[in-house]
Structure formats: structure tokens, C-alpha cells
Amino acid sequence: MLGPVILAASRSDRMRRLVSAAPVTKPVVDRFIPGETVDEIVPIIRDLTDQGLELTMDVVGEDITNPAQAEAARDAYLELIDRLGPLGLGTRAEMSVKLSMFGQALDGGHELALKNVRPVVEAAAEIGTTVTLDAEDHTTLDSMFAIHEELRKDVPQTGCVIQSYLFRTEADARRLADSGSRVRLVKGAYKEPAEVAYQQRHEIDKAYVRILRTLMEGEGYPMIGSHDPRLISIAQELARTAGRKLDEYEFQMLYGIRGDEHLRLAAEGHRMRVYTAYGTDWYGYFMRRLAEKPANLRFFARSVIGRG
Predict the structure, then answer these.
(1) Among 58, 134, 172, 205, the one annotated catalytic
(2) In the annotation, is 307 catalytic?
(3) Any catalytic annotation for residue 184?
(4) Which pTM was predicted?
(5) Which ranges of the chain does DSSP label H, i.e. alpha helix?
(6) Residue 88 to residue 92: CA distance in whole angstroms
(7) Which of 40, 126, 179, 238 could cysteine-pair with 35, CB 3.0–4.6 Å?
(8) What is the tens place of the pLDDT at every residue in 26-49?
């Protein structure tokens, strides 16, 4: 299993330096992360929305070691919101945030993350869009869900992410479905111990279907985060069975992966949202994309071999 090895490498400063210095890295990273600045990403936003797609924007970066860096992350999202406002896209361009970027792991991190993310959520609401709180490793989730609940008191459309590989997620899904929240369901991309998470792919997939059924039959807005054709087909059937209209759920996929499928789903009338990351601190995000899917690693390896 290469996934755990790659995830371990994502936390290695030595591997970060080696990968970052490799001449082949930048062209491959560009497949998944199409820009480093707001100026570079705005044309991407325009292009994707012109094709009938929607977006959720992620300013990459997770290694926050002091409050000043957390405030800088907050300000980067506020800058993005300032640029999104005049585009008039509303919820067609929303944002995803990792609370680790807002200081969650620092001393007093729960309060600090809430303090820093609140102005981002409120500013997004002012331009007619919203924010989704990404799920990270299992030790952070109680804090994330508590912040999500607090933010929804004033901005009820604030979303969150749940991960099918965690044992706790079926209970989380029932609670969130009853509360009418926006919920993105993914398989999960962090190395988790067997005490808290399924380890086998077939177990994760079966849990995904069970959880998705709960979300489809609930009162919230399900967001299907998957590139798996079988799960996408199952999601469509679950939506039909639950009597959901096409605008009562959506699909989400990563920028740079299965682009033809993005367009196919949009052409069929589905809401199709592209998770689009940008920024200079791309290493952790890039390594998780390699760990999630063997095809991504093969793509990287072919690029290295092809460039000698």
C-alpha cells in the first residue's frame, strides 16, 4: 500500500525539499493546482463557470505554527472574497477552509480558529456565497463540528465535510441530516488507525453508500465528493429514490481529475462543483492527491521518467 507511505512523506521536511526541487514537479503540480495567486486563479474561475461548472475554492496551506500565520490565512480568504464579489457568481463559487490553517492546532486553537474563520464566513455570506469546513484527521473533528454548529447560528448555510472511512461518521451523518446542513461526503485522505477507521477499500465504499443514503433521505443538502463512477451512479439512484430534484444535491470532484466527467454531469443538468486549490504552499495538498489514487501517482511517475 503506497498511500500511507506517501502520506508520511507529506509530513517530511526532507521530502518536501526534494520534491519541490525536482524540475518535473511544477508541471505536474499545475495539473492539480492551477495558480498561486488570486490574479492567476480568477481567469480559471471564469473559464470553469463559463462551461457550466461550479467551484469551491481552497487556499492551500496547513503548517501553521503561530497566530500571525493563521491571520494571514484568514486575510488570504478575505482577499479571495473581495475578488469574487464583483464576478456576481453567488454560490457558483464558494470556498472550502481547513481549520488547521486558522490556528486550530495552536494553544487555544479552538477559540482562535473560530475567531479567524468567522469573518471569512460572514464576508462570504455578504456576497451571496458560502463556506464549507473541510474535515482533517479524526483528532480535530470534535472541534470542527463545534465550530460548524456555532457558525450556523448566524450563517446557517455553512457546510462541513464528513469522511466515510471513520467509524463515527454514520452517527455524524444522522445528526447533520436532521439539522438540514450542507454536507460533503468523501472517503477520507488521512492515515487513520484501525481503532477509528476502516482500512479496507470495500468497507469504506460500503460505509460511503450507507452514509449517502442517510444524507439523501434527510433534510440537508448532500454534496457527493467522489470520482468513483460506481459511487456516482449509486448516488444518482439514491437521489431518485429519495425524490430529490437535480438542484437538491450536487457532485464535487477535484480540479485536474476526470475533467470530461465534470462536463458530462453538468450537461445532464447536475450541479457539478470543482474543488479548485491555489496558493504557494501546495506540498501537503499535492502529496495527498498522489496518496488518494494510484492513477495520480502513475501520472507523476510517467512525468518524471518522460523528462529524464
Answers:
(1) 134
(2) no
(3) yes
(4) 0.87
(5) 2-9, 13-21, 25-32, 38-50, 67-84, 109-126, 141-152, 169-179, 201-217, 229-241, 259-267, 283-292, 294-306
(6) 9
(7) 40
(8) 666 677 888 889 999 999 999 999
